[in-house]
Write a structure and sequence with these properties.
This protein has about 325 residues and is of the alpha+beta class. It has two domains: about 15-70, no CATH class; about 80-305, q2cbj1_9rhob like domain (Jelly Rolls, Sandwich). The protein is built from seven helices and 14 strands. It has helices spanning about 35-70, 90-100, 105-110, 130-145, 165-185, 290-295, 325-330; strands spanning about 20-25, 30, 110-115, 120-125, 160, 195-205, 215, 220-230, 230-235, 235-240, 255, 260-265, 270-275, 275-290. Strands 3, 4, 5, 6, 8, 9, 12 and 14 form an eight-stranded antiparallel β-sheet that branches. The protein has a four-stranded antiparallel β-sheet with strand order 7-13-10-11, with no helix packed on it. The radius of gyration is 24 Å and the shape is globular. The structure holds 2-oxoglutaric acid and fe (ii) ion. Fe (ii) ion binds near residues 216, 218 and 271.
């Protein structure tokens, strides 16, 4: 039986007009209470923009200071990369990939396939001795009074290898001589055969510092993630779908770290790191870039890049320098 009472008036919450306002132009949900609040909320954003603008120059200044004043604990890490630092499986896979007639099937026999569908692979990269030496050097650097640039806003305790001067002896040869032939067979469609720059850094997780990493995609065509150590529990990597092609929600792929071993994946593969349980975890991350791919499509804004000159490898984009003509030679 219906009860007769005062008619009810249905309402909405006022937040409908002040919270979660979706601004399609920015792809963001914003809050709007007043113009003053909006300005206040945006101050940190302006500061972040300023910080990003200064990154390249500040990084170059740190690198110069480190080069002139830092005394390494392990100078051997700065010698040109020796095959002895590399795991035999990695050497074999790279040698096979560079040999005439090499094909994907042959290479896959030399790697561990973690997911065929996601095209995620694993292979031992460095010897345990090299991992230990690199960690010893990084620890020494961390304890020094040298200025330190951190990898990005998600990793506050890692280190940028180019600032230590490790690009030339270690990371560039690793990319050019070993990763390039492997990636050319594994990911020819992502610029694997046309890698021409990288951004290499070490991430560090421990209790009281960063302990996990949210789901993200990398500003890279391809990524190598090598577990350097130390002893820890938790901290597994997880992988979802490709960011450009969101798939139906499926169970993510969980990948445990194995010391010295590297995981290879596409930069656009959504991934993150589970919370650390105990101990300390350090991984070397190499974001591999192919300018032929990214010059057409910036993976961060998904548009043709609007190029701004930068220091070092910048973010891996290139612009054709106008060819200079030696006028004297013409006469
Ligand atoms: O924690 C890790 O090993 C992954 C780090 C990572 O994905 C990144 O820094 O881009
Ligand atoms: Fe990542």
């Amino acid at each position: 039986m219906a009860t007769a009472g005062a008619p009810r008036r249905f309402c909405r919450c006022a937040c409908f007009c002040s919270e979660n306002l979706y601004v399609a132009r920015y792809g963001l949900h914003l809050r709007f209470r007043s113009e003053q609040q909006l300005r206040q909320d945006y101050v940190p954003l302006e500061q972040e923009v300023e910080r990003r603008r200064r990154l390249g120059q500040e990084s170059a200044a740190r690198k110069a200071l480190i080069l002139s004043s830092y005394q390494p604990a392990r100078p051997d890490i700065y010698y040109p990369l020796q095959d002895a630092a590399l795991a035999p499986e990695f050497l074999a896979a790279a040698e096979y990939s560079a040999s005439p007639g090499a094909d994907l099937q042959g290479l896959l026999q030399r790697l561990e396939t973690l997911s065929e569908e996601k095209r995620i692979y694993r292979v031992p990269v460095f010897t345990p001795t090299f991992c230990q030496a690199l960690l010893e050097e990084l620890e020494h650097f961390e304890q020094s009074d040298m200025p330190k640039g951190r990898p990005n806003t998600m990793n506050n305790y890692g280190m940028l290898l180019h600032e230590l001067g490790l690009d030339e002896p270690l990371v560039t040869p690793l990319r050019e001589r070993f990763l390039q032939p492997l990636m050319a067979l594994l990911y020819p469609d992502c610029g694997g055969g046309r890698l021409d720059s990288h951004r290499a850094f070490v991430v560090k997780y421990t209790l009281g510092q960063d302990q996990e990493l949210g789901c993200h995609y990398d500003n890279a065509e391809l990524t190598l993630n090598v577990a350097l150590g130390k002893a820890f529990t938790g901290g597994a990597l997880y992988f979802g779908g490709l960011f450009q092609a969101p798939a139906a929600l499926t169970e993510p792929l969980e990948v445990e770290h194995v010391m010295g071993q590297g995981v290879l994946h596409r930069g656009g593969q959504l991934h993150g790191a589970r919370p650390l349980g105990t101990g300390e975890r350090c991984n070397l991350i190499v974001w591999l870039r192919a300018s032929v791919v990214r010059n057409r499509f910036c993976p961060m804004c998904c548009r043709e890049p609007d190029l701004v000159d930068d220091d070092g490898f910048g973010d891996g984009f290139t612009r054709d320098e106008p060819t200079t003509v030696d006028v004297c030679a013409l006469t």
